[in-house]
């Protein structure tokens, strides 16, 4: 932790640095589009983005929140996202973060399902859909590997 109070750091009292709502909104939207791979992959991506890249949270705060979310029933990655949104912008932040965590992925799945139903018999479309699987798998393994390496 650092005593530098710039926009993207965590201060020495373990409080998150302020982030504008618009900036947080764009981040949660981006996370909704890239969060694939189930809870392990999603949480690894959140850690990589929120702790390592954006520096909006400390490792300690992230792990503390993750431990609480693991105790609660329900999807821990969704709860973690809503909590971090709430942490930044209270009720509205939690609702927006939680909604944007689910909505883009849902829209992507609806689009891919439609594509498969409409053009699934076309060889090129089938090839593209089969090509998505290893790409997403590689992204998830990369994020998990980064977190495993960090927490050893």
Question: What is the structure about, briefly put?
Answer:
This protein is mainly alpha-helical.
Structure description:
24% of the residues are buried. This protein is mostly helical and 152 residues long. It is globular, with a radius of gyration of 17 Å. The chain has helices spanning 21-34, 38-53, 59-71, 76-119, 123-150. Residues 1-11 have low confidence and may be disordered.
> What's the main sheet like?
none
Count of helical regions: 5
Characterize the overall form: globular
- Radius of gyration over alpha carbons? 17 Å
Mean pLDDT: 84
The overall strand count is 0
Determine the structural class based on helices, strands and strand pairing.
Answer: mainly alpha
Low-pLDDT parts are: 1-11
What is the succession of H and E elements?
HHHHH
Helix content class: over 70%
What amount of the residues lies in strands? under 5%
Distance between the termini: 19 Å
What's the topology here?
Blueprint: H1 21-34, H2 38-53, H3 59-71, H4 76-119, H5 123-150
Helix pairs in contact: 1-4, 2-4, 2-5, 3-4
Question: What key attributes describe this structure?
Answer:
single chain; 152 residues; mainly alpha; 5 helices; 0% strand; globular; disordered N terminus
